[in-house]
Amino acid sequence: MIERLSVFAIASLVMVVSACSPRQGAVADDPFERVNRGTHAFNKSLDRNILSPLSKTYADVVPDPVEDSVSSFASNLSLPGKVVNNVLQLDLSSAATNTARFVINSSVGLAGLFDPSQKIGLAEKDTDFGETLQGWGVAEGAYLELPVFGPSNLRDGLALFVDMLLLDPAGQILKPPVSEYRTASTMGAVLQKRQIYGAQIDEVLYDSADSYAQSRLVYLQSRRFELKDIANDAYIDPYAEFE
User: Fold this and answer.
1) Half-sphere exposure of 217 (CA within 13 A, CB side)
2) What mean pLDDT is predicted for residues 104-115?
3) Which residues, at least 6 apart from 36, have a Cβ–Cβ distance to it below 8 Å?
4) pLDDT tens-digit profile of 13-68?
5) Which has the closest alpha carbon to 43: 10, 11, 4?
6) 3-state secondary structure the chain
7) Cys-Cys crosslink for 194: which of 55, 164, 186, 227, Cβ 3.0 to 4.6 Å?
8) Distance of CA 146 to the CA centre of its chain
């Protein structure tokens, strides 16, 4: 899944810089802070030395339309896993939408290289097994920073691997060389996101007095907003002030 296969949780950071403004006061259950900070330093080094420079090179070398097609291809192959989670959540409307997107984009969209579904109003219904578990009443648990994958929590950390290993029909069916194309396109999508949101991500990672605390705040607020986790004190609706 593109949203999870990212060095230093690019997707987690993207969720907040594209939709929310981090505010102080998020409640964080962080009993593993010492270990988490060590992992954060490792992830930050990966971003500084590998991901960030690679993303700039990728943007310079690969034309924008090709970047978009690469990301679209990877996104399309993540849809079957989203459909599985939609069904587990009994969200049959979203399951139907994601299934229709996959069928149309895989055929008319030339294996997902293009996104004709978007043009006819079929927007992707993003989800994951973490959201499924939340719907089943599983609390988020302690905050975790995972190596390579970045900010998470006990529930979503477990869910990440369930999504990757058990709830990914495309990953289980695809054989080389298509599976290799998928891996390459997933990395391309990550590099494109890192470049698009580079300024905002750099602000969190390199311009903050405490980048660990800031990235934790960003992740918790964005994830809780994404899941509409109103039971948690840190849930913040960034649009409430405009109502």
Assistant:
1) 16
2) 96
3) 30, 143, 144, 145, 212, 216
4) 554 444 444 444 467 899 999 999 999 999 999 999 999 999 999 999 999 999 99
5) 10
6) CCCCCCCCCHHHHHHHHHHCCCCCCCCCCCCCHHHHHHHHHHHHHHHHHHHHHHHHHHHHHCCHHHHHHHHHHHHHHHHHHHHHHHHHCCCHHHHHHHHHHHHHHHHCCCCCCCCHHHHCCCCCCCCCHHHHHHHCCCCCCCEEEECCCEEEEHHHHHHHHHHHHCCCHHHHHCCCCHHHHHHHHHHHHHHHHHHHCHHHHHHHHHCCCCHHHHHHHHHHHHHHHHCCCCCCCCCCCCCHHHC
7) 55
8) 14
Tokens describing residue 18: 């594209």
Q: Residue for token digits 């409640």?
A: 27
Stated pTM of the model = 0.84
Name the residue type at position 32. F
| Type of residue at 233 | D
Which residues lie across from 153 on neighbouring strands? 143
Q: Is residue 1 within 8 Å of 12, Cβ to Cβ?
A: no
